[in-house]
Design a protein that fits this description.
By secondary structure, the chain is an alpha+beta fold. It is built from 16 helices and 21 strands. It folds into 2 domains: 278 residues, Periplasmic binding protein-like II (D-Maltodextrin-Binding Protein, domain 2); 213 residues, Roll (Dipeptide-binding Protein, domain 3). The longest helix has 15 residues.
Length: 537
């Protein structure tokens, strides 16, 4: 179900060059047509000013990076993170992995929109864009090891790292984060949040944006991959309600009822009954949901309290009731779908692993009593209520499960814009609940979630012994040795309960039967997925 996740880097990298040509589909692709999808509205269009998956899914249609992942017929699975050329046609790395030199394709043009007007992309654009990412993005910590970015000449970029950094190419391949942008657009529009400022080199051009109603993209006639995309365009119908989006798919008014084609277990079961013609592919996805706690605030600074909270979650009961038993119970700290990195709880010390995946309310009560909380306590739980199923049930079940050990949880719903810019980045009090970004690099799930000062360290973990291991795994360029360190980290975290993980549901990938060539791929790259998609009508 899940493809192999190769290491992003090897100890010595020679020149890498690939040919970008459309691969043949089982059927001959047909050109033309506009793919319609019902989506929620993105809070921003600026890839560096928002960490929302909606923002990055939207703008991935318009932007390219230096490198990208394998997509469509190139990809061996939904989690194939093989590094492919994008704006850089080839690159070299020094033997110690600290100097990368990228050679840009000649003649690649930005979209033909003012004030850029289809000019050629240069090394200065790359330098500007990546330095902007380092200065403004909520994910800028990914580039903390970057020491310098130099435009050697018009088509050559050199990036110097402070030390070897195994995740580097993987992070570069997340093109919506590391999008190459034209400086003059920011100079004119102040940022890239205005529709007129969305100017990239990607497969689609933003044609119009009627806020709250519709977003229309059209095929980029100057896209540097000849023959792609097949579609004439993409029309996003802004639809807030999940049931309404599913209704639009059922009635053939859209081809996608979710921006990635997702349908929950519940939605998939319903579609099977009402629309048996709609293809459904059950897919394990890179995802995670959890309770995160201010471990720097009482009572969550006491490991006994955190262990009690984790033991109170009836993961098997949730899985059986909401996911027909199809979810993964052992969803942290590395997601189930990242099979090359995941160390199963069954391979850990059982006495520790029970605090990670176990269910024992009686033991949880004893732990609370030992921590001086025999009478329980009350805590807020900040969240965004609009996530698709099973999230509404998750919130309610978390309240119910914790109430059984004496913890009163007061749900605090937030507006999405506030939630994604505050709570989601660890700016909350006491407790919060929600899903995580589908990160493509194991370092994001470890260093990003547990290293002090990282925006995704939502539980405010500060653990000196852990930090040593977190730094060590990202500096190790040998994949086998790195895996050994990652396994050690997972064993260490088993009983710390810095987060209380929920079962991770699989997703159905659902779309209208006339959609061809679409292959789901984890991460935010909607544009590259649609690059190979075509309509059979």
């Amino acid at each position: 179900m899940v493809g192999r996740i190769p290491s992003a880097i090897v100890a010595a990298v020679s020149v890498l060059a690939f040919t970008l040509t459309p691969a043949a589909d089982a059927q001959q692709p047909k050109r033309g047509g506009t793919l319609r999808m019902a989506v929620r509205e993105a809070p921003s269009l600026d890839p560096h000013l928002s960490v929302s998956f909606l923002t990055h899914s939207y703008v991935s249609l318009a932007y390219s990076g230096l490198v990208r992942f394998a997509y469509g017929p190139e990809a061996k699975g939904t989690a194939d993170f093989t590094i492919m050329p994008d704006l850089a046609e080839k690159w070299t790395a020094s033997k110690d992995g600290t100097i990368y030199t990228f050679h840009l394709r000649k003649g690649v043009k930005f979209h033909n929109k003012p004030p850029v007007n289809g000019r050629e992309v240069t090394a200065e654009d790359v330098k500007y864009s990546l330095e902007r990412f380092m200065g403004k993005s909520g994910f800028r910590a990914r580039f903390e090891p970057v020491q310098a970015i130099d435009a050697v000449d018009k088509q050559t970029v050199r990036i110097t790292l402070k030390e070897p950094y195994a995740p580097f190419l993987n992070h570069l391949a997340n093109a919506s984060f590391c999008a190459i942008l034209p400086k003059e657009a920011e100079a004119q529009f102040k940022d890239f949040n205005r529709p007129e400022a969305v100017i990239g080199t990607g497969p689609f051009v933003l044609k119009s944006y009627d806020k709250g109603v519709r977003v229309v993209w059209e095929r980029n006639p100057d896209y540097f991959v000849k023959g792609l995309p097949y579609l004439d365009g993409v029309a996003m119908e802004v639809t807030k309600d999940a049931a309404a989006r599913l209704s639009l798919l059922r009635s053939s008014r859209v081809e996608f009822g979710h921006i990635w084609g997702y349908a929950s277990i519940e939605e998939g079961g319903s579609l099977k009954k009402t629309n048996p013609e709609i293809p459904l592919a059950l897919t394990r996805t890179i995802g995670q949901g959890y309770i995160y706690m201010r471990t720097d605030q009482a009572p969550f600074n006491d490991v006994r309290v955190r262990r009690a909270i984790s033991l109170a979650i009836d993961r098997k009961g949730w899985n059986d009731a909401l996911m027909d038993g199809l979810g993964c119970l052992d969803s942290g700290p590395i997601p189930c779908a990242m099979t090359d990195w995941k160390l199963e709880a069954s391979k850990m010390d059982a006495a520790k692993a029970k605090y990670h995946v176990g269910y024992d309310p009686a033991e949880a009560k004893k732990l609370l009593a030992a921590a001086g909380q025999a009478s329980g306590f009350t805590t807020p739980a900040y969240h965004w209520p609009g996530y698709a199923p099973p999230w509404r049930s998750y919130y309610e079940l978390a309240v119910d499960n914790l109430s059984k050990i004496g913890i009163t949880v007061e749900l605090k719903p937030e507006e999405y814009g506030k939630y994604i810019s505050t709570t989601y980045l660890g700016k909350y009090e006491k407790m919060a609940i929600g899903p995580s970004t589908p990160f493509t690099e194991v370092d994001d799930w470890l260093f990003g979630h547990f290293q002090p000062e990282q925006p995704n360290n939502r539980s405010h973990v500060a653990d000196a012994e852990l930090s040593k291991m977190l730094h060590a795994q990202r500096r190790e360029l040998d994949p086998k040795k790195r895996k050994e360190i990652v396994d050690e980290i997972q064993r260490y975290l088993a009983d710390k309960a810095y987060y209380a993980y929920f079962p991770n549901p699989p997703q159905y990938i659902a779309h209208a039967p006339n959609v061809k060539g679409y292959k789901f791929h984890d991460g935010y790259g909607l544009g590259p997925r649609l690059m190979y998609t075509w309509l059979d009508k």
